Structures are given as C-alpha cells and as structure tokens.
C-alpha cells in the first residue's frame, strides 16, 4: 500500500482463467439468467475452429439462443460497426438480446464493445465517441480473448478507426468493461508467429508502461466521478510487476515455439495481469507516440508500440530509476552497478523486439526524417496520454524520444 494512493479499480465482475474453461461458459450464462445473445467473431473462428459451433450447441441445449455475426475484421472501423448494428438489429427483430459475446483478438472484442451500446437503439457509433456526461446504456459483454494480448477483456475502451480521416477513435466508459472475462489459454494456441509477437509485445508494453506511469495521486481525472483510467497505484503495480515477470520468461518462448503450452499459458496470464494494471492506471508516451507511428505506417498496434518502447524507457531513467531497476532484474540484468543496469534495460528490450521480427528504429520502419515534427505534434495531441507521462517537460521529451528512436540512439 502507498498512503497517498487514490484507487478507482473496475475489474471484470468475473474472471475465469484456465485451460479448457471455455466449456464452462454455457452453464455459467444459463445460471446467470441469460437467454438471448449475439456472438461477435470473425471467419477464422467460425470456419477454421470448432469453438463457435461447440458454444452455440451447448448454449442452445440450455435454452440460450444466439445469433452469430462473424464479420469481424482486424482494426475495425466505425463503418463496420454501424453496418453490423443494422444487420444484427434486422436479425433480432423485436427480441432485444440480453448479452453479447466476443471471441477473438482485441479487434473483435472492441467491435463487440461498441456494439453493446449501438445494438439497443440502433444509433450510429459516432454518438458514443469521447467522454459522455452520463454512462450509455450497454448490453453486458462476455469477452473470450484469443490473443495474449491487448487485454481488452478488462479495459473500458473500444478502439475503432474512423475511415473519413484514418484516425483511431475511442468509445470509452466503464460500462463497456466486460462483465465476464473468460481467458482460456488454449484459444491462443492457433495464433501464427506474427500475431503472437505483435500481441505479446503489446502485453509487455501495457505492463511496463503502466508500471512507470503517473501516480494516482497526481492523475488528472478531468472531474470524472467514474474515470476509465486514474493513474498507477500499489494495486495496479502489483499486477504490472507480475505481468512483466511473465513476459520476461515467456514472450520469446511463445514466439520461438508456438507449441510451447507452458509459455502460451504464461502469456495468457501476463496479458490479463497487464490489463488489470493498465486498465486502471492508464498509459502514456509509448502508446501516445505509437498512434502517430501507426498514422504513417499503418502497421499493427503491437509493432508500433514496440518500436517506441526502448526509447521511452531510456528517457525515464532519471524519473523512474527504482522501478526500472526492478524491471531490469526481472529481465535477468545482473550488473551490480544500478545505474548501468538501468541503462542496459532499453538495450535488452530492443534486442527482444528485434528478435520478434519488429523494426527497432523509426527509420527502419520507413519513416522519413521530415515526418518527425509532424509526429511530435500528433503524439502531443493525444493529451490524455501526454498528460500522464511523468516528466517535467513533455513536449521536449516527446521530441527527443522521437528523434532518438529515428536514429536508434540509446544511452547518453
Ligand atoms: N480496447 C483495448 O483496450 C485495446 C487495447 C489494445 C489494443 N486494442 C486493439 O486491438 C486490436 C489488436 O488486437 P490483437 O493484437 O489481439 O489482434 P487482432 O484482434 O487484430 O487479430 C489479428 C489477426 O489475428 C487473428 N487471430 C486472432 N486470434 C487468433 C488465433 N487464436 N488464432 C489464429 N488467428 C488469430 C485475427 O483473426 C486477425 O486476423 C487493435 O485494433 C487495437 O487497436 C484494444
């Protein structure tokens, strides 16, 4: 405990985690009184795995009817959400569903979160973007993540792309947090190496970034009584520390050998623990700058975070020395000179990212030097993340981090 912590923690009401736990879901939903559901997924799961059919049949036998929408796409757009809303509402007719289930990675879970607010009245999702004065009416969501991962099964936000300007927009409210997060690590066994690497490094970024972010006592909640994010606390840091330890042990192993089930299970825990940390504490510079990187490169969420992570850690050496030392030790850095150990951490993380087949500088990501000032401006424009970066001069820090990430410069 830290005596000045200001904790506002909204975990899922039920976390069900373990190999094979997916078989428990129909009986659990029946016991909770759910009768009519909408199941959001994509064609990989409906056509290439037995998981959708198995669930539907078992639920049906217990009196739960379910409509399947398998039109989920990676990085869903607001248009996809509105089209899905119309299609699903046409199918359900007069019977309002009483729950939504999402099976997939962060993309399908985010689409389902947005649908939880659009299905009841058929309104366009644009009406729910940004901070709303009152919590929107939302169907309860049951999230079944198949990547390890985004941790979207424990966060308040749905990230969608607005196709009119290709930017990411967020529907964000604590009512969007899934009521049940069912994490069956076996769902991740079919992830190809690229998805394993991108989603795994996303989990590592969530854990480290939230471990180092602004303290809850200093966090600006913007006057909200039910904030989605509210800074780090002893509670969130406990989950972050455990998640970092698991990523240090298992991230490379899952990428090198996707059939390493111990490593897959380890990363499933890591991803969820990281979400229990960042889903309350929030994030800062890595994600803030990654949005600008994605705006130019259109590369995946995980890889655009990964390229920035070492350079952001490097910039935090003076403000977060003690925490970085703990992270360094978890990554096996044994140097008895603490300053040297902390300095070595970004180098080790950058080697890990390179091992995962992700570019380690902005230049090798295809970004031209002339684009850097625009990136600084775009990253600073994500004020909710910039405000949580715990350094005195955020604009100067962002400019330096972006410059050094382009050059590939770490250390003094
Ligand atoms: N809401 C949040 O809190 C939050 C946090 C981080 C990221 N995100 C969002 O999540 C998305 C990224 O999610 P992601 O990294 O989980 O990937 P994803 O959901 O975009 O999936 C990527 C691809 O992998 C496939 N896939 C997923 N699981 C698989 C499995 N088990 N076997 C085989 N293929 C599988 C999918 O079908 C898809 O084609 C981005 O849109 C990002 O913005 C949301």
TrEMBL record:
Instruction: Tell me where in this chain the Alcohol dehydrogenase iron-type/glycerol dehydrogenase GldA domain is found.
Output: 12-185
Give the E.C. number(s). Answer: 1.1.1.1
Q: Which InterPro entries match?
A: ADH_Fe/GldA, ADH_Fe_C, ADH_Fe_CS, Alcohol_dehydrogenase_Fe
| Enzyme class, broadest EC rank | oxidoreductase
Per the entry, which co-factors are needed?
A: Fe cation
Q: Which UniProt keywords apply?
A: NAD, Oxidoreductase
The residue ranges of the Fe-containing alcohol dehydrogenase-like C-terminal domain are 235-381
Q: Which GO MF term does the entry hold, naming one? A: metal ion binding
The record's SUPFAM superfamilies line, in alphabetical order, gives: Dehydroquinate synthase-like (SSF56796)
Family membership: Belongs to the iron-containing alcohol dehydrogenase family.
Q: Record's PANTHER family? A: ALCOHOL DEHYDROGENASE, ALCOHOL DEHYDROGENASE 4
Q: What is this protein called?
A: Alcohol dehydrogenase, class IV
Please name the source species. Herminiimonas arsenicoxydans
Q: What is the lineage of its organism?
A: Bacteria, Pseudomonadati, Pseudomonadota, Betaproteobacteria, Burkholderiales
